[in-house]
Each structure stands twice: as structure tokens, then as C-alpha cells.
Design goal:
Blueprint: H1 2-14, H2 25-55, E1 57-65, H3 69-78, E2 83-86, E3 90-92, E4 97-103, H4 114-119, H5 124-127, H6 133-164, E5 166-168, H7 175-210, E6 221-227, E7 233-239, E8 241-244, E9 251-252, E10 260-266, E11 275-278, E12 285-295, H8 298-304, H9 315-325, H10 339-342, H11 352-357, E13 361-368, H12 370-377, E14 379-389, H13 392-442
Parallel strand pairs: 8-11
Antiparallel strand pairs: 1-14, 2-14, 3-5, 4-13, 6-7, 8-9, 10-12
Helix pairs in contact: 2-13, 6-7, 6-8
Keywords: Membrane, Transmembrane, Transmembrane helix
Transmembrane segments: 392-418
């Protein structure tokens, strides 16, 4: 082992890349020193560059042609920066969304049936106290029926219009972002529908109030036909004046269309044709309808009345109404609504006005199918960045390239520099030796 080490040491000491025919000691020393420096510089340069390239992690762009939805999902899990170019830029919402609106049960109940509306009509409707339930109920439920039909038909048209609207994007949108943005668009679309309907209702109410339109049940105003001389007549429309604990000084429908009194079963007609009043414990009334009101118009009467805290959810109250109407034994009352089902969305809907804010929509069910959207987009290609380390073959080629590129110039430069350094060193040594010899002779 020791002999091997000695031979190896001798080989390294005598190894000479720049060997020539020269036999003098100085030339051989220069060649050996040049060899050592050459090998050191060559190995240091190559190893440094190889180490740098070997440890460096580069980013490369990977492209996948016509990826399937399954492959895209897998790639998205590992590469968050994946980007796919769609072959179809615009896609209709209806191709990947199915919207179902669940309406309040009152709009599909017997309370909006024509049978129930006709059952509510009797002699008191045109002759009795305007605050009497029997005087206004038929017209109020006709309004409810019309609003339910109008709301549903309007939303059906708007939903179809939304289905035809285009979703535009050059690139495939990721599922979570796609679902969020689509739900937001649906919400904005429905809110626009609610707002448009509310505007139309406001215009209708303003038109009715501004022109003092008089319904047949006389809740807004009454019409007088009078004569002054027995031969000529003139007519006058005089607004009703509502008086109650809420309006102790009176409320006239030509100034305020929210005038109201409690609805119930009154035992008398109105003594003063211009005033409709209800005072607690003073009115001649058999039964007051809880949270149900009579206002200037049938529309306002409905909107001011309570939804969840009314007789609509109370079968006992419905049966009591039947007693006051004296319906025949063959008459069938609508079933009371289920309060638990109405409260399923955990939202307070105190009046019909609250229900109309969302067009009687109780729940929105939207099925967003991302797979159908992906099929419509049909990406031509997807690209993503991936880390890449240098391969062994690349490092081998790099090593050979570096060796070929460095060895040749080093073989010319190193011997020349070493020769210059050795000559200068020898000259310096000789000068010092001559100086020492001169000093010794002098002294």
C-alpha cells in the first residue's frame, strides 16, 4: 500500500503534459509546474461550472395538446399556474347552468284559485262597510293571483334571457373561480329582475294614486251625483277619510295611499259615507282579522297585510271565516299553509310587500355543471411551468464541451505564463546571489 502511494506520488510529481525534447533541469521544471497549474485550472473551472449547472433548477414550459377534463383536473392539482386556451370563446350560460326557483307556497295554494276568489264574492262586497273583509277579500286575492302569475312569467322570461347570455373568455376559467363568478352573475341578474318589477309596481301605484282611480268597493273615494236646480246634475269624486288609532286625525287617500284600517267582519254599514273608521273597543265589529288590513286600493291592502302571521296559516281562522260567509256544505276551503315550510329559508317575511321584493321566490337552486362548460370550451392546448434539473447526458455533453473549450487555450497560456514567472524568479535569485558575493568580497 505504501509502495502504491509512493509510486502515485512520484507519478504526480513527474507528470508532464507539456513534455518536449529538452533535457535541462530548468525546462523540465517549467513543464511540470505548467502541468500542475494547467490541471488545477482545468479541473477547477470544469467542476465549478458543472456543479453550478447540476444544482441549478430551471423552469420549463410544458404544453399538453387536447387534454381531457380528467387530465386537466389532475394537472391543476399539481400545477396551479396551468393555462388552457379555449377553442370556443363565447359560451351561453344555458349550456352549463340549470336554475330552478322555488316559489312561496301561497302562489300554488288554493288561495289563488278562481274557486276561492268567487267564493269570497257576496252582497256585502258592494254594499257593506268598506273595512269589512267580505267587501274587499275577493279583489285582494285577485290581485294576489295576478301578482303570482306575473312574477312567475316574468322570471321565466328573464331566466331564459339569462340562459341566452354569453359567457366570454379566451382561456379556461378554473372551477372555483368559475363557480363564484357565475353565482355572482346569477344573483345580479335576479336582482335586476326584482328591481325592474319593483319599478313597474311603483309606477302603477303612482298612476293609481295620482289619478285617484276609484275601485268598485269604495275604499279610495266615493262618487256623488247631485243636482242644484232639479234639472242639471254634476258629479264629484271625494276621497275617503280613514280614522283609527294609527291615524287619529284622519288620513285621506288623495294625499296618502297608505291609509288603512283593520279588516274584519263589521255589523253595520258606514254611517258617514266620507269617513271609514275603526277604534278599538268602540266599533261594531264581530271579528277582526289579525294583521289583515284594508287600504285605499286592493294592491296596498295586500302589501300591508301580514303573510306569516295571518289567517292563511290558521285553519281555525279559516273555518271561522266560513261561518261568516255561510257557505254551503259543498264548499271546500283552501288548506292552511304550512308555516314550517314557509320558514325553511330562515328569513323573516312579515308582509306581502316583503314577499314581492323577491317576486315570491323562496329559494334559488342553481346547478352549475363545470364539466359541460369544459366541453364547450374544449381547450386546444394547456401549458404549465415545471421545474427541470440537468440530466446526466446534458452534464456529460457539457463536460466534453468545457474540456474542449478550456484545454486548448490553457495549453497555450499556462506554459507561457509559467515560463515568464520562472525566468523572473530565477533572475531575482541570481541578482540576490551576486549582491551577497560582492558584499562578502568587499568586507
Amino acid at each position: 500500500m505504501i509502495g502504491l502511494i509512493r509510486r502515485l506520488g512520484k507519478f504526480c510529481k513527474e507528470f508532464n503534459v507539456f513534455e518536449t525534447d529538452a533535457t535541462d533541469t530548468n525546462s523540465i521544471d517549467i513543464q511540470r509546474w505548467a502541468t500542475r497549474i494547467y490541471i488545477f485550472l482545468l479541473l477547477f473551472s470544469i467542476s465549478g461550472l458543472l456543479l453550478d449547472r447540476g444544482l441549478r433548477v430551471e423552469t420549463q414550459l410544458v404544453e399538453v395538446e387536447n387534454p381531457s377534463s380528467e387530465l386537466y383536473v389532475k394537472l391543476q392539482e399539481t400545477h396551479s399556474d396551468i393555462s388552457c386556451l379555449c377553442s370556443k370563446v363565447s359560451v351561453s350560460y344555458g349550456s352549463f347552468i340549470e336554475s330552478n326557483l322555488v316559489y312561496e307556497s301561497v302562489c300554488s295554494s288554493g288561495f289563488v284559485s278562481q274557486t276561492w276568489i268567487e267564493m269570497l264574492v257576496n252582497d256585502i262586497t258592494t254594499q257593506g262597510h268598506p273595512g269589512d273583509f267580505r267587501a274587499s277579500a275577493s279583489l285582494i286575492f285577485q290581485v294576489l293571483q295576478g301578482l303570482c302569475i306575473r312574477a312567475k312569467s316574468m322570471l321565466d322570461v328573464d331566466i331564459q334571457s339569462f340562459y341566452d347570455t354569453k359567457f366570454i373568455s379566451n382561456y379556461l376559467v378554473k372551477e372555483d373561480k368559475f363557480n363564484t363568478s357565475t353565482e355572482k352573475v346569477i344573483g345580479e341578474f335576479l336582482n335586476n329582475s326584482y328591481t325592474n318589477f319593483d319599478h313597474s309596481m311603483s309606477i302603477l301605484s303612482s298612476f293609481m294614486h295620482g289619478n285617484l282611480l276609484v275601485p268598485g268597493i269604495g275604499t279610495t273615494a266615493i262618487t256623488f251625483l247631485q243636482t242644484l236646480d232639479g234639472s242639471s246634475y254634476y258629479s264629484a269624486v271625494i276621497p275617503r277619510n280613514y280614522m283609527s288609532s294609527q291615524f287619529p286625525f284622519g288620513c285621506m287617500c288623495d294625499h296618502n295611499d297608505t291609509c288603512s284600517i283593520a279588516s274584519g267582519f263589521y255589523n253595520s254599514t258606514v254611517f258617514d259615507n266620507l269617513v271609514i273608521s275603526y277604534w278599538d273597543n268602540e266599533a261594531d265589529v264581530s271579528f277582526i282579522m289579525k294583521n289583515w288590513f284594508v287600504s285605499c286600493s286592493a294592491l296596498n291592502s295586500l302589501l300591508m297585510s301580514s303573510f306569516e302571521e295571518s289567517f292563511l296559516f290558521n285553519q281555525t281562522a279559516l273555518n271561522l271565516i266560513g261561518m261568516y260567509y255561510s257557505w254551503s256544505s259543498n264548499s271546500v276551503l283552501p288548506d292552511a299553509l304550512n308555516l314550517n315550510e314557509s320558514n325553511k329559508t330562515n328569513e323573516t317575511k312579515s308582509t306581502f310587500s316583503d314577499l314581492l321584493q323577491t317576486l315570491f321566490v323562496k329559494e334559488q337552486l342553481h346547478n352549475i355543471n363545470y364539466s359541460l362548460y369544459y366541453a364547450q370550451c374544449k381547450p386546444q392546448s394547456c401549458s404549465y411551468s415545471a421545474p427541470k434539473k440537468a440530466s446526466f447526458l446534458y452534464l456529460l455533453i457539457l463536460f466534453l464541451s468545457l474540456y474542449g473549450g478550456l484545454s486548448v487555450p490553457l495549453q497555450f497560456i499556462v506554459p507561457y505564463i509559467v515560463t515568464l514567472l520562472m525566468r523572473r524568479l530565477r533572475r531575482t535569485t541570481e541578482t540576490r546571489a551576486d549582491t551577497g558575493k560582492f558584499k562578502s568580497q568587499l568586507f
